[in-house]
Amino acid sequence: MKVVLITAGVFLIVMSLIFFLGAFAPFDLTILIEAIVMFVIGSIPIAIVVIAEMREKPAPINITNKIEIDADDLVGGDKTYEKLKCKNCGGSLTSKDVRFTDIGMIVNCPYCDQVYAIEEEPKW
């Protein structure tokens, strides 16, 4: 539609220029008025296209990135888990018996009431 409007507008403007030049060979007021009218009529479709282009807003672009990382890929070394046992009595400990503090992991054995900190040796 834009192409048709612009083509019609340009055609009418070019024709108005030809009429305008023709009006001055032997000066003729009616040809001059026709040239001005044709120029105005030719400018209307071009103005419509320009105004429509200015009002159009680009469509928003939505980009979604989905990244999935398996936690096992982030941990190096041996991936087997050991059950904790009290170093004093050998009783089996649960997550309720271990708490994390600013000095490390503290174990409170429910069997022998022993409280101690677990020192983890480096894995390398």
Overview of this protein structure:
The chain has 124 residues and is mostly helical. It folds into two domains: 2-55; 84-124. Helices cover 43% and strands 10% of the residues. It has a three-stranded antiparallel β-sheet with strand order 1-2-3, with no helix packed on it. Strand 2 and strand 3 form a beta hairpin. The two termini are 72 Å apart. The mean pLDDT is 78.
Q: How would you summarize this macromolecular structure in one to three sentences?
A:
The chain is built from 3 helices and 3 strands; from the N terminus they run αααβββ. It is mainly alpha-helical.
Chain-wise SSE layout:
Elements: H1 2-23, H2 29-55, H3 71-74, E1 98-101, E2 104-108, E3 115-118
Antiparallel strand pairs: 1-2, 2-3
Descriptive tags:
mainly alpha, single chain, 124 residues, three-stranded antiparallel β-sheet, 3 strands, 10% strand, 3 helices, rod-shaped
Q: How helix-rich are the residues, as a percent range?
A: 40-55%
The major pleated sheet works out as: 3 strands, antiparallel
- Low-pLDDT windows of residues: none
Question: What is the straight-line distance between the termini?
Answer: 72 Å
Strand percentage? 5-15%
Structural class: mainly alpha
* Order of strands, widest sheet: 1-2-3
